């Protein structure tokens, strides 16, 4: 049988073919960068009043990516953008120094991350019609020796909201339906772009993207209008805020396969928008609408949070994911949702709840924002809020001696009632149930106005200080636990 031999080509001929392909790719890349350059200069030149500075900064950022990749010259970009700023009137409205500062700031940020045409998202369509992002073909190794850190300055911890919302990672913000978490998150987005405070906290200034799968455009408009009216601001202050309603649409940010979750077409759209705008904050409302798998599937939960965290790191912004607590999270007051992987995977978790005692809600407009998890800060913090005129505002918090007095009173009442119950032969427990101490004490005539929530805080403090401990009574199958004072007879039998 004759064997067919494939023809061989001289090495030089193969090299020439490779050079031609490289030249063709280089030419295509330069045309792509030049088209982007012309578009961004035109955008700045045609920018309307109130949007000019943000448009200029965004253009500088996007072109900075191309400068870093070697397709454009920094000097050409700076000169062209400054000319466009003069054409739209921004240079006359501000001053030359301010315009140059904006351009250089955007360029510097963009030049930290080179962009090539091959980096643009590529899609494939599955047989079921779902659009998915193709995974990267190669993965570069990023292992490095800790010794290389010697002599480098330690980067400071970055926060969007100090102690509450860390930068470049995911914060899970949960709350039962109707508590107002979507409104409070929109207030945060407005505060970021308008450069104002949020419920008494300072926030980092920048752009924001608010993605809502629950509220339609009309509702987003109404809430935004309420916020501006309450803060005495105008829509001109919101040029850096991008809204997107997904009500009634497919809102999934990932697609579930037998092997893993893959990013969806909507995620690619969000990522591309974030690349263009470089926001300081991305809000995603809500988890139930954007997550495609079982909320109790630990592996899929971690993958999904990893996808969002990758977005936060890549786009150097904070991602706030809104969600609803599970029935267990509601009853326990922890605000947890589904699998514990949600709590374990995020770096920060906030919980917005109503203030109620044994089902009674004395003030329907009152809320409390609690820090349930903070990898980079302190947990257990609370901010009392009040809904008024369409927005939430922080209530005055006791400080100094007043705060100490409130804490001392609740601890004194807790110990007084613990002693009284013990004298009557009545046991109370540290675990939620029929004999739960905060519930029993809050309904007692001698509670002196202390609520269940306040008494729970007192109980936790007394446990931490070792003033009280968990003792036991009974034996065998009848053994039960109860709270006792340290050093006192614990009633063991």
Structural features, described:
It contains 15 helices and 17 strands. The strands form 5 sheets. It has a 9-stranded mixed beta sheet with strand order 7-6-10-11-5-12-13-14-15. It has a two-stranded antiparallel sheet with strand order 1-2. It folds into 3 domains: 11-117; 159-394, P-loop containing nucleotide triphosphate hydrolases (Rossmann fold, 3-Layer(aba) Sandwich); 401-485, no CATH class. α1 runs parallel beside α3 (74-88) and α3 crosses α5. It is elongated. The longest helix has 35 residues, at 11-45. Mean pLDDT is 84; it is low at 121-137. By secondary structure, it is α/β, with parallel strands linked by helices.
Shape: elongated
The main β sheet shows up as: 9 strands, mixed
Task: Kindly report the CATH topology of the largest domain.
Answer: Rossmann fold
**Span of the ends, CA to CA:** 96 Å
Query: What is the domain total for the residues?
Result: 3
Instruction: Tell me the helix content.
Output: 40-55%
SS element count, helices:
15
* Share of β-strand residues: 15-25%
Structural class: alpha/beta
Let me know the CATH homologous superfamily of the largest domain: P-loop containing nucleotide triphosphate hydrolases
Q: What's the total count of β strands?
A: 17
Cross-sheet strand order for the largest sheet = 7-6-10-11-5-12-13-14-15
Low-confidence stretches are 121-137
Nearest-integer average pLDDT: 84
Q: What is the radius of gyration?
A: 29 Å
Query: Any idea what the CATH architecture of the largest domain is?
Result: 3-Layer(aba) Sandwich
Classified by CATH, the class of the largest domain is Alpha Beta
